[in-house]
Write a structure and sequence with these properties.
alpha+beta; 21 strands; 35% helix; globular; transferase; GGT_ssub_C; GGT-like_enzyme
């Protein structure tokens, strides 16, 4: 595709970056530079992606960490590979056990109850083993240096850190949370923007993971420390839970959207929601409509897709509907007929049987990576394993405590997962990776940036700069201030409960790399973050 050269709606924001030999795009410049360093050392896109991901656990701990999960899509050898590195619930974590502790209606967001087995370190090792060129230990060097010597906290990360500290100061009162404060608020407060933050414990943990190929985290010293910490405070995760974990290679799922194949990781991730929405949208002419008309159709499609997603998506072993049925053209046509002139409140259909970081990387040899890892909400569970810098995520908060629900908590089961890497191909060739982090905003962000690029022909940077909307629940939709008042008024007349939101962080943070027909890479990075496209 040739993008419209005059397609940038916000001239004061960033411009698209063009390069030939390699590119890394993510939400923090120091992490992007860590990845670019691997390319300059002779590494490939996978090496760059892993180094960037490891560095992000240091420079953006407000969104991801060593104790989080990860997913990846890798284009290598002329085909797309999917990796699901999300961990299951510990064997001791059951609905009955939580009920015995007075937890009945909703999964907690902090403490040991929402802690599932972390998958990120296993993802780094697995990706490196299968596709990497540099030594595994080399990929850790930038992150270890950043953790040991310290780095200046960047603006968006600093604001998120301060917000998390204020919340945790109120809510985290037990002794099990003390290591979070000594690690992430050593001066009795969140580090300020521009202030140097160091974490020697984090550096030492990364050294152990690097030297052992991640074995220390799952079957060695670090696993034993996680086990002891959990036992001391009545937690559920144990050494055997960690030792049993292996990431899973999966077949990516896709739909055709106007001649492009859009790829996502299959459930338990909710990339399926984005694909279902695109399946509904592909029969509408979006480029020829007014912004209000276009937003209305997109919002209705997202609501229909989420109605099905929240009803059906779970660990695939427990799903009551098949992915291929939810993505079938017959089912899409049935659901598409529900999109009318007014805002609706859709229910799930019945198909016939038949707080996260995102990064992307590409090299000059044709390899491309779409990668995402997360604590789920901010710093995660509020628990840091003492002396390690390992912040345990709270992904289990997504489980339902309704035993009849498809996503009900069960030992060894993976929860409904919100982090989703995306990828585009056309005619069997790689176009490039894309992603928009942000919990339940992620499928909505995927749909909006793809419509911007494919329907409206915006370049990757302009597609990310464009103002976004976010469906919240019912008929409630939040809108960024860049959407004009008359557009909101038109949507309100259709029954949407529109409201502007100044919380730019809630609209997701994306990265895109697009390969042109001549092999040139075009990159865009999120203006709502501290991001950078590092290019070579």
């Amino acid at each position: 595709m040739q993008f419209d050269p005059h397609d940038h709606p916000h001239p004061s924001r960033r411009v698209a970056i063009y390069a030939r030999r390699g590119m890394v795009a993510t939400s923090q410049p120091l992490a992007a530079q860590a990845g670019l360093d691997m390319l300059r050392r002779g590494g490939n896109a996978v090496d760059a992606a892993i180094a960037t991901a490891i560095a992000l656990t240091v420079v953006e701990p407000t969104s991801n960490g060593i104790g989080g999960d990860a997913f990846s899509l890798v284009w290598s050898g002329g085909r797309l590979h999917g990796l699901n590195a999300s961990g299951p619930a510990p064997r001791r974590l059951t609905i009955a056990e939580l009920e015995s502790r007075g937890i009945r209606d909703k999964m907690p967001e902090v403490g040991f109850a929402p802690v599932t087995v972390p998958g990120a370190p296993a993802a780094w090792a697995e990706l490196s083993k299968r596709f990497g060129r540099l030594s595994f230990a080399a990929l850790f060097e930038p992150a270890i240096e950043l953790a040991q010597a310290g780095y200046p906290v960047s603006p968006v990360t600093g604001r998120a850190w301060e917000a998390a500290y204020r919340r945790y100061e109120r809510e985290l009162t037990g002794p099990e949370f003390s290591a979070w404060f000594s690690t992430f608020a050593p001066e009795g407060r969140a580090p300020r923007v521009g202030e140097i933050w160091r974490s020697p414990d984090h550096a030492e943990t990364l050294r152990k993971i690097a030297e052992s190929g991640a074995e220390a985290f799952y079957r060695g010293e670090l696993a034993e420390r996680i086990d002891r910490f959990s036992r001391e405070y009545g937690g559920f995760i144990r050494l055997e839970d960690l030792a049993a974990f292996r990431p899973e290679w999966v077949d990516p799922i896709h739909v055709d959207y106007r001649g492009y194949d859009v790829w996502e990781i299959p459930p338990n991730g909710h990339g399926l929601v984005a694909l279902m929405a695109l399946n509904l949208l592909k029969c509408f002419d979006l480029s020829g409509r007014s912004p209000a008309d276009r937003y209305h159709i997109e919002i209705e499609a997202i609501k229909l897709a989420f109605a099905d997603g929240r009803h059906y998506i779970a660990d695939p072993r427990f799903m009551s509907a098949r992915v291929e049925d939810l993505l079938s053209e017959g089912y899409a046509e049935e659901r598409r007929r529900l999109i009318g002139e007014s805002a609706a409140l859709p229910n799930p259909g019945r198909p016939q049987a038949g707080g996260t970081v995102y990064l992307c990387a590409a090299d000059g040899e044709g390899n491309m990576v779409s990668y995402i890892q997360s604590n789920y909400q901010g710093f995660g569970s509020g628990l840091v394993v003492p002396g390690t810098g390992i912040a345990l995520h709270n992904r289990g908060a997504n489980f339902s405590l309704d035993s009849a629900h498809v996503n009900a908590l069960a030992p060894g089961k993976r929860p409904y997962h919100t982090i989703i890497p995306g990828f585009l191909t056309k005619a069997g060739q790689a176009v490039g990776p894309f992603g928009v982090m942000g919990a339940f905003m992620q499928p909505q962000g995927h749909v909006q940036v793809l419509v911007n690029m494919i329907d409206l022909r915006l370049n990757p940077q302009a597609a990310l700069d464009a103002p976004r909307w976010q469906w919240l629940e019912g008929r409630k939709v939040a809108a960024e201030y860049g959407i004009p008042p008359h557009v909101l008024e038109s949507l309100s007349r259709r029954g949407h409960e529109m409201a502007w939101s100044a919380d730019t962080g809630s609209f997701g943070r994306g990265q895109i790399i697009w390969r042109l027909d001549n092999g040139v890479l075009v990159g865009g990075t999120e203006p709502r973050a501290d991001g950078q496209v590092a290019a070579w």
